[in-house]
Amino acid sequence: MTDLELLIALVHSYAPEIDGERIERAYAVTTAAHAGQMRSSGKPYVTHPLATAKILADLYMDGDTIVAGLLHDVPEDTAVTLEELRAQFGDDVANLVDGVTKLAKLDFAKDQVQAESLRKMFLAMVQDIRVVLIKLADRLHNMRTLGALKPEKQIRIARETLEIYAPLANRLGIYNIRRELEDLALKYLEPEKFAEIEELLADDRDDRNSFIGQAITQLRENLKAEGIGAEITGRPKHIYSIYKKMRAKERDFEHIYDIRAIRCLVQDKNQCYVVLGVVHALWTPIPGEFDDYIAKPKENAYQSLHTAVMGPGGKALEVQIRTHEMHQIAEYGVAAHWRYKEPGGKRDPKLEEKINWLHQLQEWRAEVTSASEYVDALKTDLFKDQVYVFTPKGKIIELAAGATPIDFAYHIHTEVGNRCRGAKVNGKLVALETALTTGDRVEILTTKKGGPSRDWLNPTLGLVRTARAREKIRQYFKKQEREVARAEGRALLEKELHRLGLAQKNLDEIAKQFNYKNVDELAEAIGYADISLQQIGIKLLDLGQPKTTTALETIIETKARPKASSEVGLEIGGVGGLLTRMAQCCKPVPGEEIIGYISRGRGITVHRRDCKNVIDHEGTDGRWIAVTWKGAKQEQVYAVMIEVRAFDRAGLLYDLSGVVSGENVNMTAVSSKSRRDHTAIVNATLEISNANQLTRILIPPSSTPRWKLATRIN
Fold it and tell me: For residue 10, what pLDDT band results from cuts at 50, 70 and 90?
C-alpha cells in the first residue's frame, strides 16, 4: 500500500463515512502544488503534509481537518490561492488552512514579535481549536525531522517547542503529542542527559519487561477473584518526565517510581476505587505517592488514580487506574471530541468546559495592552499548575498556583479587588500575601470606599501573582492619578496665568506651544511635575531669545561662573571646570543618568535623563551635550523633596526619621497632615548625596516599617 492508501485506511478504521476520494483530491492538489520542492532532509516536500495528516488521523480527527492538514502549506509556499482551495474543498477547509497559514507567517525570532505572535495564535484558538491541532501536528513532524537543520536552529526550535507547544498540548489534554514533543525537545536541548536516560532505560528493558509481566499477571488474577474484568498493560516510558522528576526531587534513576508502571482500564468510576483497594491489599503502598485525579481532575480534564507500591520482589511500581472513557480523554484531550461527536453533528457540551480557559484571552485582549505582559500572562497564568478554591457560596474558582487572596478578589470582580482590605481562608484571617491551595474556602473582606495599595504591585512583597490582577491595579492607579493630576495641574496653570496677567490666553494654544495636544495633557504634565510653572512663565513672557551662536566656547569664556562643574563632580564632553547649574524641574543627584543643555549666559543646565523636558525636546536642536558624574566630593549634598503616604499612626515621623538618619541624611524640613481615610501625608526635604541613598529611603528593607507610597516630588 502507498502512504496515501495507508492514510485513508487509517481514517476509515475509525470513521468509514469520511470521503476517501476527497482526501485523494487534496493529496493530488498538494503534490502538484509542491512539485519540485524539497525538505532540508532531502525528501520531497509532500512528505511533510502527508505526515501531518497522518498525525491528525492518529488523533481520530474529522475529514475537514485531515484535508486541511494535507493542504496547510499550499497557500503559503505555492502559487495556489486560498480562494482556489475554497472553491474545491469548501469554507471549513479554507478557513482552517487560512488559520494555519497566518500562524506560519509569524516570526518567533524576536521577543516582542514573539509576544504579538502568541497573542494572535491564542486568539485564533478560540475561533476554531482545530487550527491549533493542525499546528501541533505540523510542529510534531518538524521535530521528528529536526536533525536535518543546523545546530543553532535545532536549539531555537526545540526551546520554542518546550516552552510553547508542549505546554499547549498538555493544556488541551493531548498527552501522546505532549510526551513526544517534550522528549524530542530534550534530545536537542540536553543531548547528554537524554542519551543517559535512554541508555539506562535500554539497559534495564529486559528486567523491566519481566517485572511488568509478573505484576500484570498477579493483578489480573486478584481482580478476577473480585469479578472485575480489566485491561492491564505496561505504560510506555516518558524520558522528559523522568528527567524532570530526577531534577525536581533530586533523585537518581533507580528512585523514580514510575520507571516501572502499569495501567489498568475498567468500565466505570466505582470499579476504579475497587481496583485501588485490590492493588493496596496486594502490594504495600509507598507513603505520599497517591493522587486522586478522579475526585479532583487536572485543569485539562485529565482523570485517573495514581498510586506507587512496592511490587513483586520489593521493587517500586506505579499503577494508573482509569475508565476507558477517561483514557480516551487522557490520550487525545479535546481531539477526542471529534471521535465521539454526537449524532447530527452536534458538539459535545463537555468540550466547551474543557477549553473554557481559552476565553480568558479574549478578555485580556482589551485589558493587557503590552505584548510582553501578555506573554508573561500566558507563562504565569496558563502554563503553570492551577489551584482550585471555593467562594463562600461553594463556587469553584481556578487560579494559577501561588495565587493570593488579592488575585482571588480580582478574579471575582474588579471592584471586589479594588476594595479588598483583608481575607479569611477556611474561616481564619490570613495575610494578603498568603498563597492559596486547592480546597481553600476564601472570603474577601472589603470596605465601602477606597482602592488598592501601590504596595500590591511590589513584586518583592508577593501580594499579587497573576497578570490579570496586576493589570487591574495598574488601570486603577492610572485612572486615579490622571484625574487628580489634571485637576491640580489646571488649577496651578490658571493661577499662574492670572499672576502673570495672561488669564485671557487660550489654554489649548498654550498647550500646543509646549508640544501637548490640548490643555488636559498640559495640565496632566504640570500635575505630575513633568513641566514647571516657571518654564511656562518664561516662554509665555518671551524672556530673551537665544543668540545665533551657541558654541561651547562661549560658555567657557563667560564671566558669570556661580559654580564650576568640577566643584559638583561633573565632566562635560570630557572637559571639567565649566559653568553648570542643576535643573529645578528634575533636580538630579549623583548616580542618576544625566544630560546637559547649553543655556545662553547661564552655562549648562543639567537634567535627569528621564526628565520630561529631555524626552520632549532632545534632538530638536544642537544644544544638548553629554554630562557624566565624576569625582563628586563626599560633602556635596543636594536638596530633594519627598512625599510619604502611610497609615496614620503614632510614631510615623519617628519611623521616617529613623530610616533617614540610618542613611546619614539630614532632614532640613518636614510637614505632615492627616486625611479622613486614616492616612497621613508627610512632606520632607532631605540633603541627599547620591541616588542609591534616596532609593533606600523611598523603599526601605522589609525589616523596617513600610509606607503605602513614597515618591520624589522634585
Answer: very high
76 part of the active site: yes
Average pLDDT over residues 388-398: 78
Poorest-pLDDT segment among 343-347, 673-677, 680-684: 343-347
Which of residues 431, 453, 475 is at a domain's end? 453
126 and 15 within one domain: yes
Alpha-helical runs (H) found in 283-355: 324-332, 336-339, 349-354
Catalytic residue list contains 291 = no
Query: Residue 144 to residues 31, 139, 187: CA-CA distances in angstroms?
Result: 21, 9, 11
Whether 491 and 528 have beta carbons less than 8 Å apart is answered as no
Regarding whether 595 and 533 lie in a shared domain, the answer is: no
Residues in the chain: 714
Name the catalytic one among 3, 5, 19, 76. 76
| pTM: predicted TM-score of the whole model, two decimal places | 0.48
3-state class (DSSP) for residue 643: strand
- Picking from 544, 568, 587, the residue at the C-terminal end of a domain is 544
- Could you tell me the three cell numbers for 319? 499503577
Specify whether the CB–CB gap between 134 and 92 falls below 8 A: no
Examine residue 461 and state whether it is found in any structural domain, yes or no: no
Distance between CA atoms of residues 179 and 170, nearest Å: 9
| Domain CATH code at residue 692 | 3.30.70.260
CA distances from 186 to 134, 147, 154, 182, 198 (A): 22, 13, 11, 6, 11
| Top-confidence residue, 8 or 457 | 8
Within a domain: 343: no
CATH number at residue 271: 3.30.460.10
> How much of the chain, in percent, has pLDDT values that exceed 70?
77
pLDDT category at 357 given cuts 50, 70, 90 is very low
Confidence of residue 181 (pLDDT cuts 50, 70, 90): very high
The reply to whether 127 falls in a domain is yes
> What's residue 189's pLDDT?
93
Amino acid, single-letter form, for residue 387? V
Residues 233 and 123 in one domain: no
With cell 496653570, the residue in question is 493
Cell of 94: 479554507
pLDDT the model gives residue 262: 92
Domain limits for position 67: 3-189
184 and 318: one domain?
Answer: no
* Residues 401, 493 within the same domain: no
Of the chain, the end-to-end C-alpha distance in Å amounts to 80
Q: How many domains does the chain have?
A: 6
In terms of Cα–Cα distance, which of 440, 362, 352, 358 is closest to 404?
A: 440
Residue 43 lies in a domain: yes
Q: How many CB atoms lie within 10 A of CB 397?
A: 17
pLDDT of residue 342: 36
Q: Which residue has the cell 502673570?
A: 500
User: Are residue 382 and residue 393 in the same domain, yes or no?
Assistant: yes
CA gap 390, 414 in Å, rounded:
18
Give the integer Cα–Cα distance in Å for 341 and 350: 11
CB 117 within 8 A of CB 104: no
Q: CA-CA distances (angstroms) from residue 713 to 231, 279, 374, 685?
A: 73, 69, 32, 10
Tell whether the model's pLDDT for residue 89 goes beyond 90. Answer: yes
CA distance 115 to 423: 35
Which has the closest alpha carbon to 297: 153, 204, 393, 173? 173
Residue that the C-alpha cell 504640570 belongs to: 526
Measure the CA–CA gap between 586 and 452, rounded to whole angstroms: 28
Residue 706 clears pLDDT 70, i.e. is over it: no
Question: Which one of 70-79, 230-239, 329-338 scores highest in mean pLDDT?
Answer: 70-79
Residue 635 and residue 568: Cα distance in Å, rounded? Answer: 10
Given a cut of 50, whether residue 556 has pLDDT beyond it is no
Residues 258 and 305 in one domain: yes
Q: Is the same domain home to 280 and 291?
A: yes
